[in-house]
Amino acid sequence: MNTPLFTVVIPTYNRANMVKKAIDSVMNQTYKGWKLLIIDDVSTDKTKKVVSPYLMIPHVHYHCMEKNGGISRVMNTALMMVDTPYLVQLDSDDWLPRTALSAIARRIYRDSGNTAMFYGNLRVWRIGKQKKSSKPGAKTYFHVRHKSFPNKYSFLKYNRWMVAPRCYRVDALREVGGWDTSDKYHGRIMEDRRIILRLIERYPIKWIDRTLYNRTKHIGQLTDRKTIRKRNYLRRKTFNFYLEKWGNKYKAKFGYNNGYLVIRKLKRRRKR
């Protein structure tokens, strides 16, 4: 039997009420060349009980971390375990449209092989507090259409919803050393942007102009001021780190978007 093309990795922590939908969205894919790896970051709810019925399926696997380590350590554990050419990250409160893997597979087969990551467009579903006219528990969504990044600086400045789905070439992930856990938050914050920055300085990443991901925005994701301060600290550190690493050709003009630090403009430094 040929090795499947993808391992879909679902990192999860206390999402027993949502993870089933994520798993079922993989089960229902029109493309069947996949494995599923669910990595539990030591949940304290009924996550394992929800996952257990799926473990009768040979290509579905569950792994529980020895201790809670955060998203980057979970993804590095996944990277050590996968044996397929590509890894698709699916957060446990999100889900894939039925044809997502088929669309990505078609693009992979047409690609030269050097691309480190493929991504598409997404729907963002708001669950919870709605307008007064909405029914209780109603869901609304809006589309996010991403774009191509012609160079690493264009991605560094990108300040919209983070690109998804993220289908990574496993060899490229291993080449750059996986997800960074060396910061003072041990890779718990901004892991998505930071791994892409590691990749894009060496490899192309490519956009598939189709809606390939469903993301939820719910009350469990509310961010307090302390968390925003942490994110902004790490965002500034990350932006400045890469600008310096890439030769200090540009100076960043920073601003804020909904409370988050962003790069408003990159100004080329004058040569001395």
From TrEMBL:
GO terms for molecular function: transferase activity. Keywords: Transferase. The keyword Glycoprotein does not apply. InterPro entries: Glyco_trans_2-like, Glycosyltransf_2, Nucleotide-diphossugar_trans. CDD domains: Glyco_tranf_GTA_type. It holds the Pfam family Glycos_transf_2. Residues 7-117 form the Glycosyltransferase 2-like domain. This is Glycosyltransferase family 2 protein.
